[in-house]
């Protein structure tokens, strides 16, 4: 199974406008995810992912697995996100 197959198994999540809680965490990713999103850094001054631009993920379609899970898992719950079940 490749990452794309795994991504398809994650429920979609609808976030409230202006929610970017998931972007306020430093994340881990595979080398292929790193390449796909064009690199990564955590902006310590803004306390968020460097890909958060104007309140939105600038690499949303290429975001890593952990970002896709946020708001859909009991371990990564977000009060502003509603997963499809």
- Terminal CA distance: 22 Å
Helix content: 10-25%
Mean pLDDT: 89
Number of strands: 6
Rg for CA atoms: 13 Å
Count of DSSP-assigned helices: 3
Described by strand count, sense and barrel closure, the largest sheet is: 2 strands, antiparallel
Strand content: 15-25%
Q: Which residues sit in consecutive blocks of at least 5 with pLDDT less than 50?
A: none
Provide the spatial order of strands within the biggest beta sheet. Answer: 1-6
Sketch the topology as an H/E string, one letter per element.
HEHEEEEHE
Sum up the overall morphology in one term: globular
Class inferred from helices and paired strands: alpha+beta
Task: Provide tags for this entry.
16% strand, two-stranded antiparallel ribbon, 85 residues, alpha+beta, globular
How are the SSEs ordered, and which strands pair?
Layout (H helix, E strand, L loop, with lengths): L2 H6 L4 E3 L15 H6 L5 E2 L4 E2 L2 E2 L2 E2 L7 H5 L11 E3 L2
Antiparallel strand pairs: 1-6, 2-3, 4-5
Structure, explained:
The protein has 85 residues and is an alpha+beta fold. The chain has helices spanning 3-8, 31-36, 65-69, and strands at 13-15, 42-43, 48-49, 52-53, 56-57, 81-83.
